[in-house]
Amino acid sequence: MAVVIAALLPVFFLIVLGFILKRTLMRLDTHWHGLERLTYYVLLPVFLIQTLVKADLSTVPVGGVGGALLLSALAVSLLCLALRPLLARAAIDGPAFSSIFQGSTRWQTYVGLSVAGSLFGNLGLAIASVAMIAIVPLVNVLSVTVLAHYASPEKRSAGSIVLTVAGNPLIWACAVGLALNVTHIPLPKLWHEVADALGRSSLAIGLLVTGAGLHLEGLFRPSLAAGVAVFLKLVLMPAIAVALALQFGVTGSNLAVVTICSAVPTASSAYVLARQMGGDAPLLAQIITLQTILAAVTMPIAIAVATTGT
Question: Which residue of 49, 95, 112, 290 sits 20 to 30 Å from the alpha carbon of 180, by its own alpha carbon?
Fold first, then answer.
C-alpha cells in the first residue's frame, strides 16, 4: 500500500501543480489549449508508438489483460445504456446522460501510464499500452456514438461518426506502434532519440493540463448524475475488470496494471468532446474533478485489494 501511494504522489502532485499554475502564472485558456493540443496530437502519440516499439509483448498476457479491460469497459457501457430510462425519470436529459456515459467509461491516459510506469517501469508501460489498445478504440467509438444520439443538436450520420473516431491520434498511435512491434521494422537512431525526448515530456505536461482543467465550483454539492459516474468509474469498473482478469489467470504486476487502468479517473479530453458535440460540459467538468480527487484514495485501495494474495 505504501509503495502504491508513493507511486501515486508525483502524479497527483503534478495535477495539483497544473491547477495552481492555471490560477497564477498561466491564467489564459489559450496557453492550456495549446499545451493540450501539443500533448494530444504530438507528444502522447509519439510516446505510445515508442513504448510499443520497445515493448516485449511476449512477456505480457495480451489476451487476459486486453480481454479483461475490453469486456469491463463494454459491460459498464451497456449498464449505462440500460440505466438511461431510469436516469431520464430523474430529470437527467440527453446531454447530461452523454456526460455520465463518458465519465463512466473513458480513462485518463496520463494517470494510467504514469502510475504503471512508476510502479513497474518499462514492463508497466508495456502492459498499460496493451490496455490502451483494448480500451481506447472501443470507448471512443461508443462515446462519439452516444453523444451523436443523445446530445448533438443535429443527428450525425454513421460516416461522420466513423470519421470522428478515425481521426483520434491515440488510436493511430496504438495501431502504428503495434504494427512496428509485430513486424520488427528497424527504426533509425534519430527516431529513437527524438521519440525518447518527446516521450519524457508527454506525461508530465499531460498531467499539468489535467490539473489546469479541474473545476472546484461544484465539488461541495455534487449532482446525482456526477455521483452515478463516480461510482461506475471508480468502483464498479475496477471490480469488474479485476474479476475478469482473475478468471483469465492474470496475476502479479499484470493484475496490478489492469487495476490501475480500470481505476483511473475519466479522460480530460472527454470535456473537449462534450463541448464539440453538444454534451453537458459543466457536468463533465464536475465529474472529472470529483473523480480525479477521489481517485487519490480509491486507486491505492483498489490496487492493494486486487493484488493481495496474488
Answer: 112
For position 26, what pLDDT does the model report?
94
Ordered alpha helix ranges (H), the chain: 2-23, 29-38, 44-54, 62-89, 94-105, 109-150, 158-166, 169-183, 189-212, 224-231, 237-247, 252-263, 269-277, 281-307
> ∠ at Cα 290 (289, 296), nearest 5°?
95
Cell numbers at 169, concatenated: 491520434
Number of domains in the chain: 1
248 neighbors 63 (Cβ within 8 angstroms):
yes
Yes or no: say if 56 and 120 are a contact pair by the CB < 8 Å rule.
no
- Contact between 148 and 275 (Cβ < 8 Å): no
What's the domain range around 135?
Answer: 2-307
Q: What residue type is assigned to position 270 of the chain?
A: A
225, 100 contact by CB (below 8 A): yes
pLDDT at 216 over 90: no
Pull the grid cell for residue 88: 431520464
**Among candidates 113, 132, 86, which has minimal Cα distance to 228?**
86
What is the per-residue pLDDT for 101?
Answer: 97
Exposure string of 17-48, with b = 16+ CB inside 10 Å and e = fewer, is: ebbebbeeebeeeeebeebbebbbeebbbbbb
